[in-house]
tRNA pseudouridine synthase B
Amino acid sequence: MNGFLLVNKPVGMTSHDVVYYLKRKFNIKKIGHTGTLDPFASGLLILCIGKATKLADLFQNKDKTYEGTIIFNHHYDTYDHTGTILESKNIVIDQDVLKEQIHQMIGTYDQLPPMYAAIKVNGKKLYELARQGITIKRDTRKVSIYDFKMLSPLKDNAFDFSIEVSKGTYIRSIAVDLAEKLDTFGALARLNRTSIGQYSLKNAHDLEKIEIHDLITLETYFSNYPKLNLNPYMIKLVKNGIYLDERQTTMDCDFVVYDEEDQMIAFYQRTQPNTYKPALIL
């Protein structure tokens, strides 16, 4: 059984909790998730099943959209409402100024990840250090905000928003960075991931209702990718993990290898012109 499941993660569960739940429910040995969601967050989580676990990067590199709520005037150590308040202000925020600052954040900027993050530094995850009360220097990362909108008026120092961002963007840091522009503190009160690339939360399944027939098979996932049919001799080499080159194809993109019976055999990724490596062999 190889493919992907689209799950609507509920608030309160870790992404690992979801993996463990489905592992037991379907008696699956090999399963992993793409793009961690914090326990306080909800929304789309994509699970890779079987040999599809080797394809997690296909989703982690995609743009993502979220909806949520930002609250102002409190600085939380976690950058969200589940943490400890370290400092507070009593700033009155003008809604027009807020709208302008939101608009100005659209684009690319250097973002500082929060200490409560799964990024590894010297083999240690940042959140493991944060829980020990240790704060270390973090490198900024270039991220892009493609769209950022208010979904509700500012009320009681909070507002609802929608946002579309590039891979690796921390929405918690966006809340903090936006507040800084307003000379105050900010944090997330709610976060819901609504899409990963072309996959939408609308097509995801609740954990208690999900069934194995909801699996997106590899054949379905790769149905729009270019195909390369090879003879039995080459198929044997492909199964052994051979790289392909211009002797087989000159495609300028990733593609799927099929045998002469039109059975899917492997997925290849283009690494440079006329050079293709196997990312998945069935």
Remarks:
- Residues 96 and 154 are 10 Å apart (CA to CA).
- Residues 15-26 form the longest helix (12 residues).
